[in-house]
Write a structure and sequence with these properties.
Elements (H helix, E strand, L loop, with lengths): L9 E7 L13 H8 L3 E10 L6 H9 L2 E14 L23 E3 L15 E12 L4 E10 L6 E11 L2 E9 L8 H10 L7 E6 L4 H7 L4 E2 L16 E5 L3 E8 L10 E7 L1
Parallel strand pairs: 1-2, 8-9
Antiparallel strand pairs: 1-13, 2-5, 3-4, 3-5, 6-7, 7-8, 9-11, 10-11, 12-13
Helix pairs in contact: 1-2
Length: 274
């Protein structure tokens, strides 16, 4: 049963779902993966919404699991390609290579490397973005713009809302930041100016495309609710997916979920008031 607005705890998960497909374009059961997380608030990155032909990733998860889509932001236009015919158990064609090549999708304006024959494969046009889903009462939903960087094909944003925890208002933010090679520190400084004061209860969750210590350097009063490896999912060596909290909140439970069809592992935390 979902907790009431006076609940003493709230659970939050962040999950880069990679459009619900692996590196070959083979679909995985993203609904089942999200059900396993069992979070009150769910932040999704790389959620896919086709221009035509049915609901997108966020809408499907919401309808199947009893969430509602609180806020959603399209970050880029792109194409989702049909799966490659393969029996490989690897996540992508160049599994384990330093230079990861993904034939599953392409963002409009994205620089491409390698040769895969993608132009000859059937594809669906759509939008690639982030979403915030909730199964508890929330207020003040919205989207904050972080702008775009010259080398990044996506325009970045933050989805937000507030909820009530133990009688206090908690601000919740979800995002998917540019890669550090796109000079993302400029966006981190913009984000820091948009966040609430450090002495209020607040959560920032998402795929930060950056390791924990550098992320913390932009939000020195915040702390990571969980520390562990999230990327790549099959043999993780780095944490790119984070949940950061202000000192007004405490961590009741925290975990990094098991590998799924995505290249990222989800992060799930249960929070209370400090």
């Amino acid at each position: 049963m979902a907790p009431s607005t006076e609940a003493a705890r709230v659970s939050i998960a962040t999950f880069n779902v990679h459009m619900g497909v692996d590196g070959w374009g083979r679909p995985f059961d993203v609904v089942a993966e999200c059900a396993e997380l069992d979070a009150d608030l769910l932040v999704l990155q790389e959620a896919w919404t086709p221009n035509e032909g049915g609901p997108g990733t966020a809408a499907t998860i919401a309808s199947k699991l009893g969430y509602r889509v609180v806020a959603e932001a399209s970050l880029a236009r792109g194409r989702l390609y049909e799966p490659v015919a393969t029996t490989s158990r690897r996540w992508s064609p160049l599994f384990g290579q330093l230079r990861m090549f993904r034939p599953a999708h392409r963002l409009e304006g994205e620089r491409q490397g390698g040769r895969s024959g993608r132009g000859r494969r059937a594809n669906v046009r759509g939008r690639w973005g982030i979403a915030l889903l909730a199964r508890v009462p929330v207020h003040d939903p919205g989207v904050l713009d972080l702008g775009s960087l010259r080398r990044d094909a996506a325009r970045r944003a933050v989805v937000r809302c507030t909820t009530v925890l133990g009688g206090r208002t908690v601000s919740v933010f979800g995002t998917h930041m540019s890669h550090i090679t796109h000079f993302s520190p400029a966006q981190y400084r913009r984000l820091a100016r948009l966040l609430p004061p450090d002495n209020t209860p607040a959560v920032l969750a998402g795929d930060m495309n950056m390791w924990g210590p550098p992320v913390n350097s932009f939000f020195p009063a915040w702390r990571r609710a969980v520390v562990g490896r999230t990327w790549p999912s099959w043999r993780p060596h780095s944490q790119l997916d984070h949940v950061l909290i202000t000192p007004a909140l405490s961590v009741v439970d925290a975990r990094i979920a098991a590998a799924s069809g995505s290249d990222h592992r989800p992060v799930v935390v249960t929070l209370g008031l400090a």
